[in-house]
Amino acid sequence: MDLHHVTTRLEVDDADLSGSRFNNTNLSETIFTQVTLAGAQISDADMTGCRVSDATLSGAVFANIDLSGVVLKDCRLTGMTIDGVPFEAMVAAWRRSVGG
């Protein structure tokens, strides 16, 4: 099914849209609940003010991303790296530098 220049809200429930493409599409204020995005590719996206909760991002790769003002709360960060440096090592070095 192709949708072009559509400006209506959709209610989608219990659907398989795997392999779909969304290009130049406004999904502002869209709510995704109990969705599988495994293997999804998101690029050139404005996710300002986006809220992600109760999600699994293990194995995800974030490249060329503006993380200004991002808040991580109650997150499991084991094995996370930033530019190849283990996050746990960064925190340990920071704690040593502030005497903690």
What does this molecule look like?
The protein has 100 residues and is low in regular secondary structure. The chain contains one helix and two strands, in the order ββα. It has a two-stranded antiparallel sheet. 0% of the residues are buried. It has one helix spanning 87-97; strands at 81-82, 85-86.
Secondary-structure-based class equals little secondary structure
N-to-C order of helices and strands? EEH
How many helices? The count is 1
Distance between the termini: 58 Å
Spans of at least 5 consecutive residues whose pLDDT stays below 50 are none
Architecture blueprint of SSEs:
Blueprint: E1 81-82, E2 85-86, H1 87-97
Quick summary of this structure?
The chain is largely without helices or strands and 100 residues long.
Structural descriptors:
100 residues; 1 helix; Pentapeptide-BTB/POZ_domain; Pentapeptide repeat-containing protein; 5peptide_repeat
